[in-house]
């Protein structure tokens, strides 16, 4: 049916009033005909044809323009979802992919600070006979230093008044500024991490962060602890606090008294139990030059049987024999003087840092972040 109104709008492109004027009829009449096209007569059509230049056929067969639609699929909303999934996966993977925190424990004078210095290839920590280290000292690679620390190399923190220090917030500006008691160049550590010659603790420091340019720190954080079992109760407390936050542990005890005191065995067992994985344990008989190479098997055998009797195998759900084998493999010696006495430890530590730990993390990422990026990126 003829749609006069659309014909006027789309073909003639003139207003109702103008067409009415040209047809010499009233606007009301035209409006009436537009609304009732069945009442349009032939003479009206002839008049309209003359006026518009369109044939009557054209006018009658006029079809209003349809509004077309190009049906395009929305390929963006699926990307919104994929990108937010990728963001979540990336956040989780970043959380998992953290360098291990390797904590050093052991009685005073075991040689913890000395070993950390030799792993770093520089004398970052003070070491000497008599109880020395007085706060947890946390070595991180210089590239990990947050910009807001400026040219400072060291940040000394107090424990929060409530709860424990949160290791995940150690580089957070607001968190650190609340707990900071000092910061500056490496020299300031003298005032905070060591006792004086009378054994007095000089500072309220609980945790001292030092940023050092040492290759090993690209693969891990190293945490020195005060020797436990000193007269100072705080020292043992520092050590206990650290145990809860570590990923791997180096337990050190002098070779000439290697795990032969009840106090050492007790501390060793308690702290070892916190480890998620037996392969993250290094038990080191230090200053092994004091006993000599030929006595190593003897002290190892004695230390292993002193510690293995305590049902430790249950901690890692291992059958007793398998546990004995794996556990015995975690015992090492160390000596500054003798390459033979330190090479097995150095190889195991290198292997742990270069291969074992990164592989463990990548397995964890694959388990916990199942939708791999490549699957998310594929266009299907
Ligand atoms: N000759 C020799 N001396 C060592 C070796 N390891 C440690 N020492 C010495 O043992 C003493 C104690 O070493 P530290 O590294 O201070 O011991 P620590 O375990 O950090 O002691 P605290 O901080 O008191 O808990 C220092 O005089 C070191 O030089 C070693 O392999 N060979
Ligand atoms: Mg020390």
What does the model show?
Strand 7, helix 10 and strand 8 form a beta-alpha-beta unit. Helices cover 42% and strands 12% of the residues. The two termini are 48 Å apart. The longest helix is centred in the C-terminal third of the chain and has 30 residues, at 339-368. It is of the alpha/beta class and 380 residues long. The protein has helices at residues 4-12, 16-23, 27-35, 42-52, 56-61, 77-96, 112-120, 173-179, 233-243, 262-272, 296-308, 320-328, 339-368, 373-377, and strands at 101-105, 136-141, 154-157, 180-184, 207-212, 221-224, 248-254, 281-286, 331-333. The model has no long low-confidence stretch (mean pLDDT 86). Helix 2 (16-23) packs across helix 3. The protein folds into 2 domains: 4-61; 92-374, 3-Layer(aba) Sandwich (Rossmann fold).
């Amino acid at each position: 049916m003829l749609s006069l109104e659309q014909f006027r709008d789309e073909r003639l492109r003139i207003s109702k009033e103008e067409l009415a004027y040209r047809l010499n009829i009233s606007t009301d009449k035209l409006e009436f005909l537009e609304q009732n096209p069945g009442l349009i007569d032939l003479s009206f059509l002839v008049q309209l044809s003359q006026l518009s230049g369109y044939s009557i056929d054209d006018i009658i067969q006029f079809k209003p323009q349809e509004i077309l639609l190009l049906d395009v699929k929305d390929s963006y909303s699926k990307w919104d979802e994929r990108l937010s999934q990728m963001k979540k996966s990336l956040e989780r993977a970043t959380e998992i992919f953290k360098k291990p925190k390797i904590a050093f424990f052991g009685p005073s004078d075991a040689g913890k600070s000395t070993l950390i210095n030799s792993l770093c290839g520089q004398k970052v920590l003070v070491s000497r006979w008599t109880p020395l280290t007085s706060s947890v000292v946390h070595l991180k690679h210089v590239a990990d230093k947050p910009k807001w620390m400026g040219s400072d190399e060291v940040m000394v923190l107090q424990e929060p008044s409530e709860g424990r220090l949160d290791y995940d917030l150690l580089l957070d500006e607001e968190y650190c500024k609340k707990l900071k008691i000092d910061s500056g160049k490496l020299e300031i550590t003298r005032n905070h991490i060591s006792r004086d010659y009378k054994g007095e603790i000089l500072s309220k420091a609980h945790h001292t962060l030092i940023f050092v340019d040492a290759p090993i720190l690209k693969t891990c954080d190293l945490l020195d602890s005060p020797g436990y079992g000193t007269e100072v109760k705080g020292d043992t407390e520092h050590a206990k606090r650290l145990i809860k936050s570590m990923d791997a542990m180096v337990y050190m005890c002098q070779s000439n008294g290697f795990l032969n005191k009840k106090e050492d065995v007790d501390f060793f067992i308690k702290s070892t139990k916190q480890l998620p994985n037996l392969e993250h344990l290094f038990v080191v008989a230090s200053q092994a030059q004091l006993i000599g190479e030929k006595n190593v098997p003897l002290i190892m055998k004695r230390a292993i049987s002193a510690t293995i009797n305590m049902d430790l195998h249950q901690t890692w759900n291992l059958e007793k024999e398998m546990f004995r084998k794996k556990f015995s493999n975690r015992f090492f010696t160390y000596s500054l003087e003798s390459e033979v006495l330190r090479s097995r430890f150095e190889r195991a530590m290198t292997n742990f840092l270069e291969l074992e730990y990164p592989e463990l993390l990548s397995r964890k990422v694959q388990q916990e972040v199942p939708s791999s990026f490549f699957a998310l990126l594929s266009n299907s």
